[in-house]
Amino acid sequence: MILPPRGRKILFDTNVYIEAIQSGPATDIYHLLLTTIPRMYLSAVVVQELYASALDTVGERLVARFVRQTERTGQLVTRLLQRSDSFTSPLIAPKR
Question: Cβ atoms within 10 A of the Cβ of 54, count?
Answer without folding.
Answer: 16
